[in-house]
Design brief:
The protein is mainly alpha-helical. It is built from ten helices and six strands; from the N terminus they run ββααααααββααββαα. The strands form three sheets. Strands 1-2 form a two-stranded antiparallel sheet. A two-stranded antiparallel sheet has the order 3-4. Helix 1 crosses helix 2, helix 2 runs antiparallel to helix 4 and helix 5 packs parallel to helix 8. The longest helix has 65 residues. It is found in: Cell membrane. Keywords: Cell membrane, Membrane, Transferase, Transmembrane, Transmembrane helix. Catalyzes the transfer of the diacylglyceryl group from phosphatidylglycerol to the sulfhydryl group of the N-terminal cysteine of a prolipoprotein, the first step in the formation of mature lipoproteins. Its EC number is 2.5.1.145. Pathway: Protein modification; lipoprotein biosynthesis (diacylglyceryl transfer).
């Protein structure tokens, strides 16, 4: 008997006239805004300029979306290119299907391009945005809830997910809400990175590496619970292998980087402090600066006038002495006569 469960939405899209409003897309968009907002706060705290994170995100986000979609289509190509399927569906990103591995890989490429254009080290930028990315994933996973996808094995637990759709081979019933498990795990990862970054002053990409390692550790066991179709290697789902390999790479980077480049970058965005000071003068202290300059000029003028007066007085004194000497000589000659 089902006493409690998490209901699935009856539909994942609402039409506002001819415009479809999709829950999956809204979750992705909200996640991106949260990532940029938090990344900007962390970047400024590290000494960067306001707006730099958003400027680089203009490169990173589109690359990430393309990478995420490519990974999904390549690893699940039979959904789009097998008999009876329409390959055009591979471009319908709003219907779901983004692989985080491809999103991070190509998203990093886009961020690298943006950082190169701004003269910013990519590792420092990655450290700033790492917790925001984890929060974005936590929000984005709710898009799977709207699409009734990526659930786990059947269960009768009170927090089971109720699947009502029978599309694409789904069997209605109650299942482990793996989307919820991953969402909560990502929140924990974000909080872990924020704490560790403050406690250990992580730099040179180590905060991002910690995020990757922690996410992969959770993704491995969550992926193992899923029952949707997937490719297997040696009886294990492909994404489990991917999580294991990426986890080992992230941990290796953490260890090697800590030994070779300990500490944190002193400067993350060259010229940011000077530009901020200039902006402050232009914004509100220009009058004060002008007043200070005027006072300085007046002081210089006063000192110059004083010095000039002292010089003239000294010259007059010397002239008086010169006049006195001939008079003394004339008086002496008169006495002798």
């Amino acid at each position: 008997m089902e006493l409690a469960y998490i209901p699935s939405p009856s539909r994942g899209v609402i039409h506002l006239g001819p415009i479809p409003l999709r829950g999956y897309a809204f979750c992705i968009i909200i996640g991106v805004f949260v990532a940029v907002w938090l990344g900007n706060k962390r970047w400024v705290a590290r000494g960067g300029r306001v707006g730099t994170v958003a400027d680089i995100a203009v490169w990173a986000v589109p690359f990430g979306l393309v990478g995420g979609r490519l990974y999904h289509v390549i690893t699940d190509y039979e959904l789009y290119f097998s008999e009876g399927r329409d390959w055009v569906d591979a471009f319908k990103i709003w219907e779901g299907g983004l692989g985080i591995w491809g999103a991070i890989a190509l998203g990093a490429l886009g961020a690298w391009i943006g950082c190169r254009r701004r003269g910013i080290p990519l590792p420092a930028y990655a450290d700033a945005v790492a917790p925001g990315i984890a929060f974005a994933q936590a929000i984005g996973r709710w898009g799977n809830w709207f699409n009734q996808e990526l659930y786990g094995r059947p269960t009768d637990l009170p927090w089971a997910l109720k699947i009502t759709s029978s599309t694409d081979g789904r069997v209605p019933g109650t299942y482990h809400p793996t989307f919820l498990y991953e969402s909560l795990w990502c929140i924990g990862v974000a909080l872990l990175v924020i704490w560790a970054d403050r406690r250990f002053k992580l730099g040179h990409g180590r905060a991002f590496a910690l995020y990757v390692a922690a996410y992969c550790a959770g993704r491995a066991w969550i992926e193992y619970m899923r029952v949707d179709d997937a490719h297997h290697i040696l009886g294990v789902r492909l994404n489990v292998w991917t999580a294991l390999v990426v986890f080992l790479l992230a941990v290796t980077y953490l260890v090697v980087s800590a030994k070779k480049r300990p500490g944190r970058e002193a400067v993350v965005e060259p010229g940011a402090s000077g530009d901020d000071a200039d902006a402050e003068v232009e914004g509100g202290t220009e009058t004060d600066a002008g007043t200070a300059d005027a006072k300085k000029a007046e002081g210089d003028k006063t000192e110059g006038g004083k010095a000039e007066g002292e010089t003239a007085e000294a010259d007059a004194s010397d002239a008086a002495e010169d006049e006195k000497e001939p008079s003394d000589e004339a008086e002496s000659a008169t006495k002798k006569a």
